[in-house]
Every structure is written in structure tokens, then in C-alpha cells.
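Figure S4 source data
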Amino acid sequence: MTTDRFQLVGSLLRPSNLLAYKNQIEVRDDIQYPFYDAFEGYQETETSEIKKIVARQLEAGITVITDGEYSRSMWHLDFVWGFEGIERFIADNGYTFQDFDGGIYETRKDIGIRITKPLSGKNHHFITLFKQLKELAGDHPTKLTVWGAAHEFTELAIMNGIYGDDQGYHTQEELKEGLIKAYKEFLVEYKDAGGEIIQFDDCLWELFSEDNDQSFFASGKEGLEELADTFIGINNEIADYAHQLGLKVWTHNCRGNYESRHAAGGSYESIAEKFLRDQHYDRFFLEWDDDRAGDLTALAVLKDRPEVEVVLGLLSSKVAHLDDEARIYQLLEKASTILPKERLYLSHQCGFASCDCGNELSAEQQWEKVAQGQAIAKTFWND
């Protein structure tokens, strides 16, 4: 069922034969991205499965094609692993998510990063992968999803302090400028490879929400306003540069997505002006599958930006069952009283497998949920 009004965020559940390799990667730090040399048959298996998932998307009527992120271990770190000047290692702890019972759920631990020399985004493996995707997709639009620059800076510099005498950059400002430079280098080569749409994925906006009681910082929210300005400045410098190259620039925001669990709360209302109105993106994919996101009235800040489109993540990739269609239609109707219907799209709140372990549902259930989203979109937009 083809309808452009339903969009995939990006990632899809990986098959077991590909996971047999991926599961080995996360427990080893004596190997380096893209890991092909470490495992006989890995590259061939990955390439074969990417061909299949592209074909499956085309068969399903998906209008903007990705490789399902089959080429990655995690939604974000593979991108930085591909920069020259990066070493990965297994850290003492993984990321902290919320478990279903409200307790702490720890992710995989191969998230450690060292910066050994100034970063470069040239000759990135993602470009090779994108060329493969573009060939497989033929005339169909494609997009590449990468880690948002400000999120990456915040994690590397603010949260983990990866600068100093034993790192590739001595100061936080040097790291920021080096990271921006590497992103720009990458974007030039992406455009030269035929790229048209770049999507920056970002999970930290709600860090700045007044109603987020799960701060990423032990010190709480002190100093976050200044950090927010730095955050927006980084993202806009990258977005503006991508626009200068002629790229469409999209973004996806959620509050974490790991084995059907989330990392944080925080609504859009208190951050809407900075993070929606003031960021220079053409299309926003926004997580709105439960009450954590707050009220849709946050979209009102985009009324005076008629060029901006919003993909409403009202559906959930975290659950195996189909979504409540009455709720979806009700929220679509409400959103269309705030922004014109022609500026709106529908999606799940996030991908189905932000990390290769995937969410807690089957591939069959995944495609049933995709078909449901397409059917709702087709009905609502009379597409």
C-alpha cells in the first residue's frame, strides 16, 4: 500500500543470521569498525540482507528507502566509529534506561570512545553503504540517518569529558569545532555520492524540558539554558551547511528506544520555541506515542514556518500489538487544527531496532504495524 503520508523513521528488525555476527561485535573491543575483517562471511551476509530489506520496503510501498540500519550495531555510534581519529572500547557501564517495572535497565557496554587525533569525516564507510543503497533503490527517494551533531557533542564533551591532554582535543571548544568540521566533510562527500536527504537523529532535547524529572546530569538542570543555546547553535550550523550543499535536512527526536524501553521523559511544550521553532530543519519526526510528549499544542510554534513539515510519531514501535486507531485519528484531527494537514505525516515514534537487538516484537508484527500505519494515513489524507 503506497502512501507518502506514512513514513519510516529508519531502523527495522535484523534477521537472526545477521545478528549472529552483530552479537559478537558488542563483546569485543579488539576489533574496529566496520568489523568485516574480524568475521568471515559477515560482509557478505550484511550485503545480502540489505538487498532483501530494501526489496521488502519497495514491495510494501515505502516511499523513502533506507537500508533498515542493517549495516549498524547502534543507531548513533557506528557513525562516530567511522570518523578517522576514533577508537571504541567496552566501557564499565552501558546507557541507563527505564525498565518496565520502573527500575534501571542497562544497555550493552561497547559505548566507550577515545579520540586519538583530530577527527575527519572523509572517506567514511557510510558513503560506501549509501552508494549501495542508492543503487538498490533505483529511482526511489532514499535517506541517510546519522547521529545529530549536538547530541554527539553533548555526549562526548559534556557527559564524558573526552578532551584533555590524553585526547585528540585539549579543550571542549576545540572538540566542538573539530566535530563540526568532520560533519561538514562527511556532508560534502554524501552530496557528491548523490545524497538528497540527510536525517539527524537526536535523543537529548527533553534534557532541557522543565517537566523532565530524569536529568542526564547528577547536578540537575543548572546551566542548561546556556548549554541549550550551544546545542541549537551546533545543529543549526550543520543544517545550514547541508542546505548550502543542496540537501534536504530532516531530524528525528525521541526519548530513547532500546529493547522497547525508553530513557527519559519530558514534554515538547517547554522546549518548543528553541527546539522546534528555532532549529533549521525541513522536517521533524517527533515522538508522540504516549503522554510523556505532552500536548500537541506545542506544534503551534511552527505556524509561522510554512516550509516546515512534521511527522507525528503517534504509533509505537515498542509494542507488539497494533495501535489504538481511534486515538491516532483523534490526534491527527487535533494536529490538523494547529498546522495545515498538508504539512503533516504519520510514523512510529522511533525505529523498530535503534540498536541491533531490536524491540520486543517479531518481524511479522513489525510489518503488520507498518501496514496499519499506511492504512491510517491513506484514510486520513484520502491518499
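Figure S5 source data
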Amino acid sequence: MKFETRAIRLQSKRTLQNEHSTPLYLTSSFVFDDSEHMRALFASEAEGNIYSRFTNPSVREFELKMASLEEGEDCIATSSGMAAIFATFASLLAQGDHIMMSRAVFGSTFRLTEDYLAKWGITYSYLDHRSTSEWQSQVKPETKLLYLETPTNPGLDIMDLRQISDFCRKNSILLVVDNCFATPYLQKPLSLGADIVIHSATKYLDGQGRVMGGAIIAGHEIISRIFPFMKNAGPSLSPFNAWVLSKSLETLAVRMDRHCENALKVASWLESRPEVKEVRYPFLASHDGYDTARSQMKAGGGMVSFELRGGMEAGKKMIDNRSMMSLSANLGDTRTIITHPASSTHSKLSAGDRAAAGISDGLIRLSVGLEHVDDILADLEGAF
């Protein structure tokens, strides 16, 4: 089946009620037939549900759907995207291990690495995401993971997943890719050589700013190493959120088509504005990663970043002059969202770290929504 059909038709088995839409399994626990059935379930000798922190039918539907859409073997759903990142690190890394990470990652990922992994004896190296030529010198015998985003947040740099996958295989390193900005509709990292895909389902997978969630997609062996942590630590996705997210996936393709269409028009319009120093959008020919983006993505996505002449003050002025656009730290919504990363999502980084990640004081991140593009452009023009 095609992507769009799988997103709609992959569902839990119908109950005796013969419902057309999958029901919500809003329960914390499950009952056993008898003492032997209970014993077999706890001994993992039989399939079934025990407790919703472990497994739940609503959650499992979302997991199986995500595994299929990302063309992976299995999936674990989590309570948020950061929970997915932390569960992956906590399950696959140990004291003395080393992780390599692109400098262009979400601000909370920096904090997780520096404030928590470091105090547990896990070392890290930040990589120049714009040039892989120096990466080999950062590899150590104890290096276990390489973590990156593509497109990156918020600079929308593009990483060549085929090239990086070859690098990781050569060095026996697991490649973990955050596919939040592209979604499985536009990009499939596992098919390009990655070992693990991470999602913040809070963003485009939900698509309407309603619920939080995360997902980890990988092969059965890797998922089997992460599941015990999930089961015992408990960063599990709630059945209600899983039910909402599974329904949201049914419209992911049509939503992303509109996001991409609007974003390309907005990015092209921004290039003509004298107030704008640079526009970053993967499917603009002016983007330095244009050829790579075209080779590994179906379309350019719904995110646009641009740098204003005038720095911090120009950024704040634009934020305050908007009318329709929402001022929020979220993204991937039906509503267009404008953000000034230097004073919000990446404000806790030092000026040097922001510069190394490509985040200037005048950078604006735009999550282009599903409104009529003329209204989005009119609001941007008024904000200038």
C-alpha cells in the first residue's frame, strides 16, 4: 500500500462491536483470564497487555503505524520528543561511552547532553554540521552514537544522510536521526542508512497543537534494548494522546503537501525583501544544501528561517508587529507560528554556542501553516 493508504488503513483489529473508527483504550490496566494467563504474561510467554505503562492497544496502533510509515521494523512511543531522545541515550549508552552530536540541534538536547549525560560519565563531542571533513578526528574507541537533525532546528541546514551513514558504518557507530521537521512523508532516514529515527510527535505528526508525544523507530534488536528502560522508567505515551496522534497521521500527507506549498511561496517572497539578509529553505536553489535536499527529501517542508538586517532589535520588532501569526515556541501547527530563537528556544546557549549552531541575533524561524498563503504574506509584510 502507498504511504497515504497505510496512514489511514493500518488500524487495530476491530472489536466485537464492528466499529469503523478505532476506539480509545482509556485504561490503566488489564485483567487476566486466570492465574496461568497472568503468569504467562509476566513471564513474556504469551502476548497481551498488563499495564498501560508497558503496552496499550491505542499506543500500539500508533507505534505500528509509525514503524510502517518510516519503513522500520518496530517503534516505541514516548510522552514527548525529548523523552524519545533521552530514552534512546539512556538505553544505549553507559558510563565511559562517547557520543558525537551535530552542533545544530534543539536547545533542550544540548542541556540533556551537558547537564545529565556528562555527570553520568558519558563524554560528548560537538561536530561542525556544515563540514564533515573533521569528523573522523573526533571518533574515539568508545564512540557509540552519532546524533543529528536534518533539516536542522532552526537554521534548516541539510545533512547528507547517505554520506553520514557510510561514515557511521565505517566506524561501527549507530546513527540517530531526528526526522521531526521532514516527517516520514518527506524523508525516510532508515532507508538512507540511519539506524534509529526520533520524532517529536507534538509537531507535524499531531499537526494541530493539541497533544504531546514522541516516537523511536528502529530495528527489532535496538527496540528490544530500549523497551526495558521505557517499561521501568515510565516515559510512556498516554493512550489518549496515542489515539489522537494515530488519527492525525491519517491526514499527514495532505497537510504536508499544503505546508510545503505555502512555505516555498513564503520563502521565495522573502528573498525579494530588502529587510532580509538571507533566507533558509531546503528547496530554494540558493540554499547550499539544495542538491542534497532534493536527493533525500520529497519536498522542502513547512519550516522557513530567515535572517533580518538589524539583528536582535529587528527580530523583536518583527515579532511585536505581527497580527495574525502566533508567537509560540511550538511548530508544525495548522496555524503559522513565528519565533525568535535567540531570545526563546536557544536563549540559554552562550552567544558563541549560538553562533556555532548558525543562530544569529536576527534569525527568525517561521512554521508556515495552512492558512491561505496571501494572508500569511500580508501579515509578514505588515510585520516588516
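The chain has 14 helices and twelve strands. The first helix runs from residue 3 to 9.
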